[in-house]
TrEMBL record:
Homodimer. It holds the Pfam family Tyr_Deacylase. It comes from Limimaricola litoreus. Keywords: Cytoplasm, Hydrolase, RNA-binding, tRNA-binding. It is an enzyme of class 3 (hydrolase). NCBIfam families: D-aminoacyl-tRNA deacylase. GO terms for cellular component: cytoplasm. This is D-aminoacyl-tRNA deacylase. The lineage of its organism: Bacteria, Pseudomonadati, Pseudomonadota, Alphaproteobacteria, Rhodobacterales.
Length: 147
């Protein structure tokens, strides 16, 4: 399972011109389930995201987590994180999980984050979404959980 975690002042996701999810301050999490990912991975990914120390402490150092700050998460499916660009100019996405598996693991990640006490909103799996964000820092952290 891959994720791109962006610390944001604010973020929102829209479908057909209507905002369906927003968060901030907190994180925007773009997530992609990969072939071979198991049902155990969303809980591990959620714990990593919730405990990732990417927020400033009183001294301005990145030393606080989403749980420490009470921040929110906007979780958006992003199959293009599976892009293979090793050859040619057109990315391949065959490493992404099948849609039915990807949707299940994506939903599970959002549920696991919420179970940890993080306020969570989501995009719509498989939809043509427009994502708006104010990246704070900017801070952008790639994560990959396997196994």
């Amino acid at each position: 399972m891959k994720a791109l975690v962006q610390r944001v002042s604010e973020a929102s996701v829209s479908v057909d011109g209507t905002v369906i999810g927003r968060a901030g301050p907190g994180v925007l999490v773009l997530v992609c389930a990969m072939q071979g990912d198991t049902d155990a991975l969303p809980a591990r990914m959620a714990a990593k995201i919730a405990k990732l120390r990417i927020f400033r402490d009183d001294e301005g150092r990145m030393n606080r987590s989403l749980l420490d700050t009470g921040g929110a998460a906007l979780v958006v499916s992003q199959f293009t994180l599976a892009a293979d660009t090793r050859t040619g100019n057109r990315p391949g996405f065959s490493a992404a999980a099948a849609p039915e598996i990807g949707e299940r693991l994506y939903a599970a990640l959002a549920e696991e984050l919420a179970a940890l006490g993080v306020p969570v909103e989501t995009g719509r799996f498989g939809a043509d979404m427009k994502v708006a964000l104010v990246n704070d820092g900017p801070v952008t952290i790639p994560l990959e959980i396997t196994g």
